[in-house]
Amino acid sequence: MEFLFEYGLFLAKAVTLVLTVIAVLLAVIALTSKQKNKKGELDLIDLSEQLKATKKSIEEQLLTSHQLKELHKKEKKQQKEKDKAAKKAAKSGESEDGLPQLYVIDFKGSIDAKEVSSLREEITAVLSVAGEKDEVFVRLESGGGMVHGYGLASSQLQRIRDHNIPLTVSVDKVAASGGYMMACVADKIIAAPFAILGSIGVIAQIPNFNRLLKKHDVEFEQLTAGEYKRTLTMFGENDDAGREKFKQELQETHDLFKQFVTQHRSQIDIDKVATGEHWYGLQAIERKLVDQILTSDDYLVSNLEDRHIIQVKYTQRKKLTDKLGHGASIAMENSLLKLMQFNVSRLFK
To answer: Residue 113: which of 170, 154, 153, 140 has the closest Cα?
Structure first.
């Protein structure tokens, strides 16, 4: 009897353990399924509230106790008026303070412009609620990259213009090449004094290992259908005809780039600025690449009383492997950028 009792107890423990494992697995599967269905999240951040809270905190530190008491009385009165305005705004669909909206979008572009997937979600969200009295403010930072990626990013900004909503682009650090292609879509471009702009040009680089392969008796074969299916190759032997065709394609891309900039900023002398050179903000305004020397922070503060400022941010959900790969990619990209800046940028010493 004692043996049967112990055996039954063991069996109960084993069944409990198995059921627990199954329950955990089912919970993990359910959670994974939910994450698959939800690709990302859209966050709205009230920058007006943040900026005003900062200003209020500093002002309160500078006031005497009597002045602070008077301020609190004034704020209570203003709050009552604000509550009334909020009820009225709720009925009309306007912001609580009755002011037009200033939607802030951040775009920090990589070489392949993969951030455009979040940009399109943010712009779609804004366009679903924005009116012609509102404004979109894009804080842009990009040194450019792949033509098709930045072409799509520029098209996303064009959607704002097509809806007759004012678009302002701010460049605090850099908007070069594809980055400037995006910026020039705006109604107005502002830039910090030493932001880098321009670089209206096209570049392509490709290593060739043909001699190395021959040295080690390695044969390389490449079969194509179509005379110009492949012009230059990394492993085969390139010829002058292929090089000329490749140069022609680069020139065609450059011509399209110039036409695009001219279409959106007709005040520019395109032949003088489409040399592939870049300029600092103070130089860029002389060449009409930008409209005003101003940082994004100053622009937001200057609109604090006239507009309700909301930041729109779409965050994509990522798997652990994607996060690790993205981290490695960012580290490599930053290293290459630092090396490039060391080689080509003017440094203060």
So the answer is: 153
Catalytic residue check, 272: no
CATH H-level superfamily of 41-199+277-317 = 2-enoyl-CoA Hydratase; Chain A, domain 1 (3.90.226.10)
CB 280 within 8 A of CB 180: no
> Of 48, 177, 199, 296, which is the active-site residue?
177
Other CB atoms within a 10 A radius of the CB of residue 82 amount to 14
pLDDT at 347: 44
**Domains of the chain by residue range:** 41-199+277-317, 201-274
Residue linked to tokens 């392949």: 112
d(CA 138, CA 117): 15
Task: Write out pLDDT tens, residues 210-226.
Answer: 999 989 999 888 888 99
Verify whether residue 229 is a known catalytic residue: yes
Q: What element of type H or E holds 310?
A: strand 308-316
Catalytic residue among 229, 266, 345, 349: 229
CB-CB contact of 22 with 30 (8 Å): no
Six-digit token string for 132: 């012609």
Q: What is the spatial distance between Cα 299 and Cα 321, in angstroms, rounded to a whole number?
A: 39
Q: Are 102 and 308 in contact (CB under 8 A)?
A: yes
Write out pLDDT tens, residues 276-318.
999 999 999 999 999 999 999 999 999 999 999 999 999 887 6
Read off the pLDDT of residues 55-83 as tens digits, 9 standing for 90 and up.
778 877 877 777 777 777 777 776 777 66
Residue whose token pair is 């043996």: 3
